[in-house]
Amino acid sequence: MALFAVSRYAGEEEDADDEAQEERARVLLERLREQAKARQLRRQQELGGAGPGPEDEAAEGKKSAESAAEGRGGLRKEREGGSAVLKRRRDGEPGPGADSEGDTEQREDRSNLKKKSSKKKKRDEGTEGAEARKKENSERAEGNQSTEEELPSADLGEEAHPPASSLAVLGDYDKKPVQKVQPFLPHWLAQPKLVQKRIKENLIPIRDVPGIHPRLLKKLQMNGIESFFPVQAEVIPAVLQSASNGYLLGQGGYRPKDICVSAPTGSGKTLSFVIPIVQVLLDRVVCQVRALVVLPTKELAQQVSKVFNIYTDGTGLKVVLITGQKSFAKEQEMLVQKKVTGYCSLADIIVATPGRLADHISKTPGFSLTQLRFLIIDEADRMIDDMHQNWLNQVVKAAFQAENEAGSSTLFQRTKPGPVTAASCCYPQIPLQKLLFSATLTQDPEKLQQLGLFQPRLFTSVYSEKKTLTDGTETDQDSEEKYTLPEGLLQSYVPCDLNSKPLLLLHFMLTKKFTRVLCFTNSREASHRLFLLVQAFGGITVAEFSSRLPPNERQRTMKEFEQGKIQL
Ligand SMILES: Nc1ncnc2c1ncn2[C@@H]1O[C@H](COP(=O)(O)OP(=O)(O)OP(=O)(O)O)[C@@H](O)[C@H]1O
């Protein structure tokens, strides 16, 4: 966007202006000559066919040339002076510049012309009468006046309709309409890989998805999963393919692309990363932190760690949950062990909330992320909005910490991402790949910039709607709405004033017999007030669930709600 209007040098344009002025002067000179000739002709007719003498012609020619020169030289002056000055001159008034050089010259010219004409008249005295002389004088006076008037009138005409070139005002603003800035999305955001949202109609049998380890297929079946949801069928192979070299850099030293997934709640995003990560780590020899999942709340972290526990069961992989539900010292014990040879990791996969994770990075001795291969950011939108303690920078810094500083082995080197060179290909390197998951991934490139993604690939879900064309044929049309409800969830709203809200809730619970209701409020104080009110009203088993309560009490409440012991 142009912030400044720069007045640029326009020498060539000035040259063009001069040329235009010369052209105008030439036309003017031509016109004056024609007028002079016409006058002479008229005079000859009046004088009875007597032709003009050579002196007369010379005088006329000289006068015309002088007027033309005056017109050329004074053109700019006259344009500046404006029509007001010219009018005054015509009316015989002395203008503000009446005693200027130009005017004095004009008067001198006129008196010279008069002297010349009187000399000529003296010579012609023999042939012409006194009356004829008078007439001629008056004619000449008229002629002078008209010549004087012709010049400004010609100029006035040009002022009224000036040629386009004379309008160019140097340094002036162009009055072009300012074009609106069009939002511009990076290619990966503008052209994502589209994934079907309608789960039931697009189930893919788990054996039809290539590359899944038979051990995991067995586990999936044991957990009642026979088919993958569309997101899983697209994302699992993509992650597996990017990790085809295990946890080392791809062939030729290429870093794997980061992966972003935007799909609604309940579309099966958790298994989309759990399955490929477990599969890549199945063959690991040494226990090191190789996958880190970060979520915004303890409850979400707990859910994800449960899924990991199911699929790592019997594999030897260790999953550790660090969310602050246990004491800091207890969590430290779960993460690292001090041996005679140094610290060793007790976790392959860590599921964490950002605050507690940052605390462990800075305060737990021997806690190393130098072998981290996958960083999964679940509920990415919330995580971006709340970059608590700048946790991402801390994780990346810890991941690229020098090996000997962290006290771990020097078998695999890790250098900051950069160009692929012969030197960078000498050592087997572990890349850090980011996987982002969100129900509504932001399209704001400025926000995504904070995540420092590497050549990201976006998978986003769409609805395919059947549309009937004008010729009667049916076609699938993808509609990509930003906010879509998960299948099977119905949304209604009741407009009411603030005071009636608790009453409406009681009406739904007691009259409409709603059961297993989760009611969200905008603060923990509001949730506490509502809880006390409903409890005081009676007839409903109600429980409070907010950060006011200790983790074990919240866990108990969640369990009772799942069992149907709590209505609201
Ligand atoms: N392939 C599948 N077949 C049957 N059930 C599945 C399958 N994948 C996931 N589920 C179940 O669907 C439910 C929702 O899955 P999941 O929690 O992974 O969704 P999500 O997209 O991560 O939702 P959220 O955005 O709320 O985290 C879970 O109960 C899960 O067990």
TrEMBL record:
PROSITE patterns: DEAD_ATP_HELICASE, HELICASE_ATP_BIND_1
InterPro entries: DEAD/DEAH_box_helicase_dom, Helicase_ATP-bd, Helicase_C-like, P-loop_NTPase, RNA-helicase_DEAD-box_CS
Catalytic activity, reaction form: ATP + H2O = ADP + phosphate + H(+)
Biased composition (Acidic residues): 12-21
Basic and acidic residues bias locations: 123-142
Residues covered by the Helicase ATP-binding domain: 250-459
UniProt KW Transcription keyword: no
Ranges where the record places region Disordered: 1-22, 35-163
One Gene Ontology molecular-function label: hydrolase activity
Alphabetically ordered keywords of this record: ATP-binding, Helicase, Hydrolase, Nucleotide-binding, RNA-binding
Biased composition (Basic residues): 113-122
Job description of the protein: RNA helicase. ATP-binding RNA helicase involved in the biogenesis of 60S ribosomal subunits.
Family: Belongs to the DEAD box helicase family. DDX51/DBP6 subfamily.
Annotated domain remarks: The Q motif is unique to and characteristic of the DEAD box family of RNA helicases and controls ATP binding and hydrolysis.
Protein name in UniProt: ATP-dependent RNA helicase
Native source organism of the sequence: Pavo cristatus (Indian peafowl)
